[in-house]
Amino acid sequence: MSHLFSARDVSVRFGGLQALDKLSLDVDEGTIIGLIGPNGSGKTTFFNALTGLCQTAGGQLLLDGTDITGLEPRHVYSRGVTRTFQRSRLCLSLSVFDNVVIGRQNSLDLNIVSNLLQRGRFNAAVRENHERVRALLATFSEMLAGRIFDPLHSLNMIDRRRIEVCRALVAEPRLLLLDEPSAGMTPDETHEFMDDILKVRSNNPRMSIIIIEHEMDLMRRVAERCIVLNYGRKVADGTFDAVVADPWVQEAYLGTS
Ligand SMILES: Nc1ncnc2c1ncn2[C@@H]1O[C@H](COP(=O)(O)OP(=O)(O)OP(=O)(O)O)[C@@H](O)[C@H]1O
């Protein structure tokens, strides 16, 4: 069976540290995969390797069977892999609209001269982008959509996270990578955010999502499959219930054995 994405024996080294050690995993179209593991187990490194932000020392990253190993981040992005970051990369002084629309940079004409000369085309592009961003914000709430031109710094934590997700979604990815999206949220906000992810999923049934999370309730609710890393190696792969029942996972990660 062909997979949307596959990692084959992917290794990453930082000097003497083996951050990923022959990691192999498959992601099918339209699935949500949870990636869990202790701090420093290589989860973010995997996202960085996949999005071209760090070099691999071996192995292959395949998107639809095409080797994307070593591609520059913008080329991975234009092939339909987008992401959020553990630490926010939003620009607080810009508007919500600006922060989201920058995710469509591949389709924006940023040439001032051509935009001045072709005002009709420019205005149509602005209208189209406005409608697209507004519709995305409305996925989360009409209230957020109504704040499209507010400065980002006026939004609370959960709405900022939603903006990061919208920025990753605006390019209509095939594979969305979410790196600890609930970090810094209260339990109530985390609960709301779970509903958000499920909404995103039902609006984009063919898109696949890999989500790194320490919040186990969130994983239980949204992830169809969980993969557990430890010291850069895959140590478990299965449904949430199967993975958390694994004695190794209980002892090493959940501390409940
Ligand atoms: N750029 C880098 N240079 C050197 N070492 C790095 C670099 N990036 C990550 N590491 C190391 O690689 C290992 C894996 O880090 P990584 O951030 O992928 O872990 P993680 O599972 O995402 O952890 P966390 O849950 O804390 O975010 C860690 O030991 C980390 O210190």
Q: Which kinds of small molecule does this entry bind, naming each only once? A: adenosine-5'-triphosphate
Give the termini separation. 36 Å
DSSP helical segment count: 11
CATH level 1 class label of the largest domain: Alpha Beta
Q: Tell me the CATH superfamily of the largest domain.
A: P-loop containing nucleotide triphosphate hydrolases
Helix fraction bin: 40-55%
Low-confidence stretches: none
Report the structural category.
alpha/beta
| Average predicted local confidence, pLDDT | 89
Helices and strands, with pairings:
Elements: E1 5-14, E2 17-27, E3 32-36, H1 43-50, E4 58-63, E5 66-67, H2 73-78, E6 81-83, H3 96-101, H4 112-117, H5 119-140, H6 142-145, H7 157-169, E7 175-179, H8 187-203, E8 208-212, H9 216-222, E9 225-230, E10 233-238, H10 240-245, H11 247-254
Parallel strand pairs: 3-8, 3-9, 6-7, 7-8
Antiparallel strand pairs: 1-2, 1-4, 4-5, 9-10
The structure holds adenosine-5'-triphosphate (ATP).
Residues 14, 17, 19, 37, 39-45, 86 line the site of adenosine-5'-triphosphate.
Structure notes:
The protein is an alpha/beta fold and 257 residues long. The chain folds into two domains: 5-80 and 172-254, 3-Layer(aba) Sandwich (Rossmann fold), CATH 3.40.50.300; 92-157, no CATH class. 40% of the residues lie in helices and 23% in strands. The protein has helices at residues 43-50, 73-78, 96-101, 112-117, 119-140, 142-145, 157-169, 187-203, 216-222, 240-245, 247-254, and strands at residues 5-14, 17-27, 32-36, 58-63, 66-67, 81-83, 175-179, 208-212, 225-230, 233-238. It has a six-stranded mixed β-sheet, sandwiched between helices. A four-stranded antiparallel β-sheet has the order 2-1-4-5, with helices on one face. β9 and β10 (233-238) form a beta hairpin. α5 (119-140) packs across α7 (157-169). Adenosine-5'-triphosphate binds at residues 14, 17, 19, 37, 39-45, 86.
